[in-house]
Write a structure and sequence with these properties.
By secondary structure, the protein is of the alpha+beta class. It has two domains: about 160 residues, no CATH class; about 40 residues. The protein has a four-stranded antiparallel sheet, with helices on both faces. β2 and β3 form a beta hairpin. α1 crosses α2 and α2 runs parallel beside α4. The mean pLDDT is about 85.
Amino acid sequence: AGAFTLTENGLYTVEAWQRFLGRLTPSGLFTVSRWYAPGEVNETGRLVSLAVATLLASGAAEPRRHLFLAAAGHVATLIVTKSPLSPAALTALEDAAKANEFTVLLSPDASAPSAVLEKIVSATDRRVLDRATTGFYLDLTPPTDARPFFFNQLRFATLLDADVLSHFTHTGVFAGNLIATLTLAMLVLIAVALVAATIIIPLQPTVREAGWQLAVGGTAYFVLIGSGFMMVEIALLQRMS
């Protein structure tokens, strides 16, 4: 529903997944399951993008050789291996998917049914991956510790697109992302209006009496205090807690 769209998540970042891969034995693997909208590329696309970026950062020459993705209903499961999938392991996965009526969405030996997924999984370096994940109506770029917003796939600038509402026809995460982003935009506008109505306008006579130099200096002082709190103190609290 979009409730956690704007929240940070340290589990879905390139740095976190590098640590997960680093804990595996050479034959090890880990799996991640996320919501899947048949026919759409949203959380699934970003999950694959994250896996490819992690494998590239870990030195994998062909990330697609390490990935297997299958879906059942509205849940997709991604398998990431530290070493390329062997023919025997791939056959076992395909047999298991067939026996349990899973739809294979991504396999080392087959093209992905989605052109977007195929571009992402075919990336052999980070620049190619960045090109494959941009230009889409959703943000499919791999999250990092510096930008750990895996669930926020709607760029704020998308709100300015003339056809933004047409994307409501897409199933998946778009509606929840749009509602969360619009709510944030409305809160910002309301906050600006309240500040203007309760602080700026009532203080205009005082500013005229005190002079513009004192007013500008005092405003800059409190702006810097607030910026320091948001940019430095909160970041340090998160880092040290």
